[in-house]
Structure formats: structure tokens, C-alpha cells
């Protein structure tokens, strides 16, 4: 009776812990003791870390695939727009289309530059120019100087101080803005008694003064080239010797 009683009411008398029989053969699943029923039941299934990682990987892959699909759709939409703008009836692949668009843009920029000759327009290039001109008084040597750069609050103050320090005989000045770009141009005249070498020396001083104004803005953290889109800087000085006899 004692052994039969133990066999009926002690579930662990015929099986080991964690679903392992006394004979040593493991069960196909984990078992736990149900205190209410007094018998072994299947342990609730658990989602392991491996299952969670696989689920996250699948979700990330799906998200990446969806983002890539949207990216391709945007590219194809923009390419279709470009094809409608290019004056050509021939079917072009992507490389040919982009080459044709580049050619068209260059041609448009050339036409715009020719149309704006003589008009003060702020461009994307940082630029300093000093060149001979014919806007001055008769018998005097005149120069036209200009600076083009990003606008900053102290720009006009710095420019005025640089010009005042040179004690130039100013004839006229003008300014043009386009977005955050600004271009200042002025015409000054050398004294009639000065020779051409003195005028050229003065033009060189003007050129260096304008470069200093340009570089002062670049040295400021908020206008530094490291925080702004890179621009090609051109600092050219022109001396037209054909007018040196004036």
C-alpha cells in the first residue's frame, strides 16, 4: 500500500525533474507541476532572445526594402521630369539623359551670363575684381572695383572702413543682392597728376583691402567655409594697359 500510495500521489516517483525520466531519457517538452490538478502539465512556451532578434531583423529588412522602393520611385519620377524638359524625341538611357541635361544647363548659364553683361548681379562665387574703366572724368584714370560674397551684418561697415582708409576719390557706388549673396561695386579715380605706376599701386592696395574684407567674413565661425557649402573663390585683378595713356 505504501509504494502504491506513493506512486499515485507523488508524480515525481516515476519521472525526474524538468521532464527527465528516471531512466535518463528526456521528454520532448518541459513539464511543470500543476498544484491544483496534482499532475504534470506542459510548461508555457517562451519566446527566447533568438526569436526576438530574428523578428527585429525581419522588421528591419522589411523597412529597408520599403525605403529602397520609395527611393527608386522618386528617382524614376525625377528622371521622367527631366526627359520631359529635354528637347529630344529619341529614347535615352539614364547616362545619356544626364549628359544631355548637363549640356543644356551649361548652355543656359552661358546665355544668362551674356544677357547680364553690364548688369550688377550677385553670383555664387566669392569674387574680388579691380579693373580699368572709362567711367571717370576726362584725363583721369578710373578703376572699377567690386566684391561679391555672402551677406553678414558687418559687411558694409568693414567695406566702408577699408575704402576710407585708402582715401579714394569715389565717383559712384552700387550694390546688388540675390538671396543671401551681395555684390558691391564702386568706381574711383586716380589723381590726374599721378603716373600709371602709382595708379596700379593704388589698384593693388584696393584689391588687397577687398580681399581682407572677404577673408574677415570667412574667419567668423557662422560664415566659415567649414559650415557653409564650398564655393570656388576667385580673386582676380585686371590692369588694361591699352588705356594707360589716358
Features:
DNA-binding, BHLH domain-containing protein, 246 residues, transcription regulation, MYOD Basic-Helix-Loop-Helix Domain, subunit B, 5-stranded mixed beta sheet, alpha+beta, Alpha-Beta Plaits, 42% helix, two-stranded antiparallel sheet, 20% strand, elongated, nucleus
How would you characterize this protein structure?
By secondary structure, the chain is α+β, with helices and mostly antiparallel strands. Among the domains are: 59-117, MYOD Basic-Helix-Loop-Helix Domain, subunit B (Irregular); 127-219, ACT domain (Alpha-Beta Plaits, 2-Layer Sandwich). It contains five helices and seven strands; from the N terminus they run H-E-E-H-H-E-E-H-E-E-H-E. Strands 5-6-4-3-7 form a five-stranded mixed beta sheet, covered by helices on one side. Helix 4 packs antiparallel against helix 5. It is elongated. Keywords: DNA-binding, Nucleus, Transcription, Transcription regulation. It is found in: Nucleus.
In the sheet with the most strands, the strands line up as 5-6-4-3-7
CA distance, first residue to last residue: 137 Å
CATH domain class name of the domain at 127-219:
Alpha Beta
Approximate strand percentage: 15-25%
Largest sheet data: 5 strands, mixed
Structural Rg: 41 Å
Could you estimate the helical fraction of the residues in percent?
40-55%
What is the approximate shape? Answer: elongated
SSE string, helix = H, strand = E?
HEEHHEEHEEHE
CATH topology of the domain at 127-219: Alpha-Beta Plaits
Number of helices: 5
pLDDT average, as an integer?
75
- The beta-strand count equals 7
- Structural class designation: alpha+beta
Provide the CATH architecture of the domain at 127-219: 2-Layer Sandwich
Low-confidence stretches: 14-28, 235-246
Task: Find the CATH superfamily of the domain at 127-219.
Answer: ACT domain
GO molecular function: DNA binding; DNA-binding transcription factor activity; protein dimerization activity
InterPro entries: AIG1-like, bHLH_dom, HLH_DNA-bd_sf
Keywords: DNA-binding, Nucleus, Transcription, Transcription regulation
Subcellular location: Nucleus
Amino acid at each position: 500500500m505504501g509504494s502504491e500510495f506513493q506512486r499515485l500521489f507523488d508524480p515525481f516517483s516515476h519521472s525526474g525533474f524538468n521532464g527527465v525520466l528516471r531512466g535518463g531519457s528526456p521528454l520532448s517538452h518541459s513539464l511543470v507541476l500543476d498544484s491544483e490538478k496534482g499532475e504534470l502539465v506542459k510548461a508555457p512556451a517562451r519566446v527566447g532572445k533568438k526569436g526576438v532578434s530574428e523578428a527585429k531583423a525581419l522588421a528591419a529588412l522589411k523597412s529597408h526594402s520599403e525605403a529602397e522602393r520609395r527611393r527608386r520611385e522618386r528617382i524614376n519620377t525625377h528622371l521622367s521630369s527631366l526627359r520631359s524638359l529635354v528637347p529630344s524625341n529619341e529614347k535615352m538611357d539614364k547616362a545619356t539623359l544626364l549628359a544631355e541635361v548637363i549640356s543644356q544647363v551649361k548652355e543656359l548659364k552661358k546665355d544668362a551670363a551674356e544677357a547680364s553683361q553690364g548688369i550688377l548681379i550677385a553670383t555664387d562665387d566669392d569674387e574680388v575684381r579691380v579693373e580699368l574703366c572709362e567711367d571717370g572724368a576726362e584725363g583721369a584714370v578710373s578703376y572699377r572695383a567690386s566684391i561679391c560674397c555672402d551677406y553678414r551684418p558687418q559687411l558694409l561697415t568693414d567695406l566702408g572702413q577699408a575704402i576710407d582708409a585708402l582715401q579714394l576719390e569715389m565717383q559712384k557706388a552700387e550694390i546688388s543682392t540675390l538671396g543671401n549673396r551681395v555684390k558691391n561695386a564702386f568706381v574711383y579715380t586716380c589723381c590726374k597728376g599721378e603716373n600709371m605706376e602709382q595708379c596700379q599701386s593704388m589698384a593693388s592696395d584696393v584689391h588687397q583691402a577687398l580681399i581682407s574684407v572677404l577673408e574677415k567674413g570667412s574667419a567668423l565661425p557662422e560664415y566659415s567655409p567649414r559650415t557653409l557649402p564650398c564655393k570656388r573663390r576667385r580673386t582676380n585683378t585686371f590692369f588694361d594697359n591699352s588705356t594707360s595713356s589716358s
